[in-house]
Amino acid sequence: MKTFTKKRINLESLIIVAGGDIELDALKKMLLPVLAEIKHGKRTTTPYFDANKNAKELIVHKESEQAYIYFGAPFYMKSGDPETYKAKVASFILGESGFGSRLMEEIRVKRGLAYSSYSRTSVGKSSSSFTGHLQTKNENLDEAKKLVGEEIKRFVDQGATEEELAQAKRFLLGSEPLRNETLSQRLSRAFFEYYGGFELGYSKKQLEKIEKLSLEDLNSFIKQHDEITALSFSVVTKREKP
C-alpha cells in the first residue's frame, strides 16, 4: 500500500473540484496547507482495456427458483468521443429506459419471459463495454437468452424507429436538466466533463445535439457498432434433474 500510494498520489495527478460562496484566492489559501502534505511526482496515465470480443458462456448452478442472466460485449468507443451523445440515445432505446425500452418490451411485455430486462453502454477512460441482465424462470432460460441475442442483432441491423427516437428525446431532454439542480450535481457534472476529456459545459451541448439528432444518423451509428452482438453470457440457474 505504501508503494502504491507513493507512486500514485502526487500533485501532478491531482484534480480539485470545489464550489460554493467563496472566492478562488480564498479557496487556494485554504487548500495550501492540505496540498503541502502531498509530494510532487510523475503523472500516471490510465491504461485502456477492450472488453473480450470472444463470446463465451459460463453457467453456475445454484438452488434458485429463478435464472439470472448477465450478458456483455465490447463497445468500441472511448471517453471524449464526439459521438457519445448518439450512444446515449441508442442505449436508452435498446435497454436503459426500463419499460418502453426495446428489450423490456420484447422480452417481458410481449412474451412474458422475464421479470425485468436491462442493458446499457459504459464509456470510460480505462474501458468501455455493453452489458445487461435479466431474470426469468429456470424453464425459460434458453428461450430468454436466445431472444436477447436476436433482439440485439435486430436492433443493430434495423435500428430504431421514429417513435423510439422521439420518446428518447422527450425523456432525455426533459430529465437531464433535473440532474443539474444542486451544487453537488453541478460539481460532479463538471468533474466528469473534465475527466472524460470534454470541455466544460459539454453536457448542455450534448442535449442540443440530441435534440437535432436525425433517425438516419442514429441508425447509421447503431449499425457501425455491431460489436455488441458478440455476447458473452454468465448464468446462475438451478441444475436440471437427471
What does this structure look like?
This protein has 242 residues and is of the alpha/beta class. The protein folds into 2 domains: 2-35, no CATH class; 49-237, Metalloenzyme, LuxS/M16 peptidase-like (Cytochrome Bc1 Complex, Chain A, domain 1, 2-Layer Sandwich). 44% of the residues lie in helices and 17% in strands. It contains 9 helices and 6 strands. It has helices spanning 2-8, 24-35, 84-96, 102-109, 141-158, 162-175, 183-195, 202-212, 215-224; strands at 49-50, 57-61, 66-74, 116-123, 127-137, 232-237. Strands 1, 2, 3, 4, 5 and 6 form a 6-stranded mixed beta sheet that branches. A hairpin with a 3-residue loop joins strand 4 and strand 5. Helix 3 (84-96) crosses helix 8 (202-212) and helix 4 packs antiparallel against helix 5. The longest helix is centred in the middle third of the chain and has 18 residues, at 141-158. It is globular. The chain starts with a helix and ends in a 5-residue tail after the last strand. 23% of the residues are buried. The model has no long low-confidence stretch (mean pLDDT 92).
